[in-house]
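Appendix B: a complete holo record

For completeness, this appendix reproduces one full record from the ligand-bound portion of the collection. The bound molecule is zinc ion. The inputs are the chain sequence and the ligand SMILES; the output is the full three-dimensional arrangement of the complex, encoded as structure tokens. No fields have been trimmed.
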Amino acid sequence: MNNIIARKLTVEKRKLQTCKVFEVKIDKSKLSQKSLKHLNKLFLEAKWFYNYCLSQKNVNDSNTKIKIVPVKVKEVFENRKLNTLRSGMKQAIKTRLFNSLSSLKSLKKNKHKIGKLQFKNRINSIPLKQLNNTYYLNFDKQTIRIQGMKQKLKVIGLKQIPENYEIANANLIRKTDNYYIHIITFQNKVNEIIPETSIGIDFGCQTQLTLSNGIKIEFQIPISKKLKKLDRKIMKYNRPKSKNKYKDQLKREKEYNKIANKKKDIRNKIVNILTKNYKYVCFQDENIKAWQAGRHGKKIQNTGIGGIISDLKHKSVTPIKVSRFFPSTQLCPNCGTKRKLKLEERTYICNNCNYTNDRDIKSAICIEREGLKNSKIPVDYRNSKTEEILTSTVFNLLNKIDNIKVGKLESLSQ
Ligand SMILES: [Zn+2]
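The structure of the chain with zinc ion bound, as generated:
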């Protein structure tokens, strides 16, 4: 019972906090042979234990105190000892599996077509529950100790975690042949002083983000040639367990991570700039899945707009969602008349009052006004001079981001 109360209290507390994950890298050059072996063994045993849990009729029946598990070797099962995996880790693996199964179940209920969880032949993430239980940090010496391991492991990047952050769980991660710890932290939400400013955002396929202040943001991180080449190469291997195939798979993973990181970097920076400078962030809750199914699928995947929308929802001081059915393209923000636009019409001209503007900017303006109106936030106090200064500040900040194209109406292709 006490446990339940404690958990409820934590849930309440977390609502007032924001979560941030820090990645620290285990310094391999300082790793003893013994520790390296131990780490590899941990991942191997985690896989064995995961597969054991999955093989149970009911995951809840999995025994987290178990010391020996059956492991399928070719066609027969052999017993393997779990020497490095601690019961806290086993518990966390079991919980993780249970959660995946539950979410699969609820997807199924909602009529999604889903597959079954498969037995794994590699696990790259081990949950470390609770600081000072399954893992220990030393900020002065920049080390981490994992339960069951003798050596305190030197890590890189621990200094990036601010002192006032509360440290929760962590994950031990294996990426290609390096090891990382993802440390999950919480901090109290501070009511940052952001002036009464607002922005509307229109998402698109050609121009990813168009802002109501006239700024347009374009970016594409396509799958690299190297990745495509590796994909083809890996397909061609006949022997499933060839050493070269494994090497190429690692290379592909590395290349894939590089692309994913580029995308993540762009996403974080854009969201950061918008949420730090605008108190009210208005956007339509787009159905990205429907876009993906359409002819722009690849492009959307290359940009990760879905991720940007979900980040805006969580990180804005006041996120304002406007219904995806709101006719932002058709509406005239000046007189309220509606007019259908052809796909190729890039400029909106109102039949009624002659209001003229770029199609996407006008949409963003409509989204902003609709959002503010629905939230009963007055707009008429605005000072156009300060708005202008803010717009140019934001423009300059966005311009510093690598791999994106930022423009104001005139400078981008019309
Ligand atoms: Zn009009």
